[in-house]
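Recall from the previous lesson that a structure prediction takes nothing but the amino acid sequence as input. Here we apply that procedure to Cache domain-containing protein from marine sediment metagenome. The sequence below is the only information supplied.
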Amino acid sequence: VAEDERLSSKDVISSGISVVVGASIIMIVFLSLMSHYYDYYHKIPQRLTGLSEAIGTRFAKENSANVTALFEMQLREIEKDAVTSLQYHVVSGTNVLLRENFKTVSKINPVGKAYYHVALINKDDIKNTKNLSTRPYYKDFIASANVWQSADSISYVMRPVVSIEDQSEEAVYIVNNSDDRFKGYRVGASQLKSIHRPILPFGYQFAIIDDTGEVWFHSEEGRATLENFFDVSRQVNDAKAAVLGRINAQGLVNYRDQGQLFNVRPIKGTNLSVLALYDISLLRTRVSEVLTLTCIAVIMAIVLMLVITVLSLIIRNPKLGLYRYDSFLFEFLTPKKKYRDIYILLSSLFFTILLIIATIDFFIPIEPTRVYIICLLLAIWAYLIVYYTLHPYRNKPDLKFRVRDLLLLSVIVILNFMMFKMNSNNYMFPIIILMLQLSCAFMIFRGQFYALPDKIKNICRYNLFKIHIAYRYWYSIFLFSWLLLVVIFPTYLIFKKTDFLIDTVWFKTDQMFMARKFMAKETALKNDLPVFEGLESEYKKLRSNHLGDGLYTVYRETENIIRSKDTHSDTIIGNSNFQEFLWHTRPIFDERVGKFQALVYQHAHDTSWVSEKKTDKLTVRYLNKEGAIDVNWRGPQEILKGTSGFLTLKAAGILLILSILFSLILFFVDRFFAFRFRHLKPNDFDTNQKENYVKKFGRMLLDEKSNSGLLLIGLPFSGKRTFAIEILKSAGYTKDVTLSMLRLDHVDIKAGISDILNLLAGFTLKEKDQFDWEDHEVFIIEHLEHNIKSFNANHIKLKVISFLISKRKRVVLISEVFPSQIFAFYENPKQESSLPMGSLEDDFNSWRNILSAFPQVLIGITENTEKVYRVLGIKPQKNPTKYEVTITPLIEELGHSKFLPTLAPIILSKTLYTTENPNEKYEQLDIQRMVMHTQNLGHGYYNDIWNALPTRERYLLFDLAKDGFLNIKNRNSLFSLMKKGLVVWKNRPAIFNYSFKNFVITSVSMNEALRLENKNRGKGTWANIRIVFYLMIIATIVFIALGKPELIKDFEALVGTLGGLGVVIPLVSRFLASGGQK
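The prediction returns the following tokens.
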């Protein structure tokens, strides 16, 4: 807010809403960033590391076993007879064990012609293959190119191939056993259990590549031997360096135009490396789902609380019809010194509740829906505790207030009903929550009828370290504890539970995805490994080994996927309304994820799949023709995720956010309630007998080295002339005279100085006793403000003052305006003067020189309740009577200045009336009529005050009168008004009484109000543009929340974008704010 802009109650309410909503948004964005950071730098890299390690280990083990088996296989039985033509053998008792390793085994001569083939599966595709000399593995073995050594020092060549016969992917081995009867080489074709048709979680893939980037094996069919990983990827330098350097490394690579996190690991004894990949767009999609659902949940909670707040505030006393100023709806939440102990008590209560809830959440896992309802109840009860503790109408017996209580109770009953409905099997948990609510209701009920016990008051006032903490800080701590309890911590809980909920859905997605892959591989293995008659059990075990060795879960503490004959679950938990809500609200940012949207439910409606939670394991049972597939894994856990360094970083970030929010609360409290001005009081030079200002000013006049006099400035009827006479008497001056500038209208500008003094002193030339100015020591010049807009009148005033000063006379100037108001008239003249050219400049300089030499003594409107009591004939007592309590508002209203107390008898007679009561008749003071009668009777007085104020002070009063708030950046005007007594400290700056406040609103014409607005407020550049600017920021955040990959490509870019916004916003805000100043 610029110096001259208005600060209204709408700004205060908007700032409060901004803090509440902003705290939620900041927490959600921060927690999302931390979740993304953890997944990006810890969870996924760890899983990729485990995946690459598992693949490399299983592949190396299987590769070594294949080489050994091929080298050591017994061929004597087959080679006992000379081979004259190509022979074809099927599996027999001598080679049945080879089916674990190979599909076919061939023996070729040194030039590549086949002696015979041995089929280990019921396929004869290779039966007529006579020559393998053109195959790449044969050529490499003959040329000793890329020959590997096994752990048993067996030289061999292994190459990936796509079978010409059935287009299946295989690994072909070739070795030389010199003990064979037939000279040549052994060739074995294998479908690797660990590599071919692997079963991976959703979003994961892997490739086995050589040092040139050629893909030997790939988890997705159709890519092996057909692409070079380095050629189809971008940002591949890290991966290439790790492959060439034969190290285990991780990083980011753009593979086939998709960002992929990778982990690369060399395979010992080969020139191959395992490259495990995870699609980073799925990582962003998951975080975006959590962020979006959390925002939806928080927005729903905020809307509910806004409705409850509005209902509780609008159902109150109707706006008093005679008043024109606005009452602040949240007046009960403004800081008040008398509530210091209550602020301490509420802060302690909220921090205690927060600690209890945090402890329960840490040790007891609670379902997300329950947590959400608890958060709503927590926010509602915290608001009710504050409302029924601080609101002035909290215990009104009127019907409209009972309607308010009924509405609030209805909301609480509905939420508790939902709580019990969700726990229909076990009422223990909702009963505990209900008991806690009843304890809150008891505290509220007790507070309506009983004051705080003395012991609690003593505890609140106990100060162990003797440190003084002002009540405004306790008020800020109370607001912060309230914000922490009902906004920040619930937002954290909602995000945590939403994260767990989405984690569970994605977990089930992995289970379902792998179950489908499992069944697909089961079907494919029947075609890949056809059975010989009579060996069904052996081949069933072989296929089971293929299923087990090719399964990679990437999760820790998992169990394999198993086949179950039981197609029905014993206990199927029905789908809930909340799961249906998720079906409609869970955002789909990726078509691949959308295929598994049904997993938000507990089971399929035809029970073709069922999700069950048993102890700490999550089971997805998927049905097919042969029975059921049970995927039993340890489900996601609600524990603190991450390393100690990550948890430290997260805790430091949360503490930083909390520090910023608390600092923001302190800033707003100081800005809106102007605590820096709390020590300012009206100047009481004329009423403060203790300081004896009269004698002090008298000594100033007597001092020969002092200037020529004093300048007494004060509002109308502030007793300036009386105070001046008292000063002169204390100084011992007896020859004084008063010159009234009200007689300037009868003075000729060309008259001599003696004639002017005669007229101003009240004498005429026809009178016998002529006025002799030389006989007087002190001249009191009053009403200096009269005819201030006339250059001629001001010229005469200046002429008189200059003459008296030149004659060494003491001058006491009395004025209702400041010298700056006189100077402003010369600086911006609006009319031409009849004075000679250059005279205006001379007068202006003379005014500045003369008035700057006069000490300015500002006399304010001080509190004067004693005179009200005296006028009414009442003596104040320590224990006031019921009548005195009744008329207290009138005493406070009229107990200012020397004029207003004189109106007390008349206003009391007009506003005090007797009303009928079923119990007794009693007198009541009509506050509305009291204010209006005071305004009418004091209209002239108030009008004189208003006219004596400079424009800036009028604008500040007008701003303050409208809704009780003002812009404290206009500190000079506020300082002046508080010294004048027009603005006093009542827990914040306020106009000294209600009638003058209403006068400012009702008596200022529309034209003058608009002129004050236009003249003193900024051009509004920032006020208009910042709306658009904020919308742009919100749109950016929404796009980020929607997980658009084209906007934010990776985590570093996301952090950089948010960081850039953080830098740009203050700069643009400052620039636009400066442009908004007039």
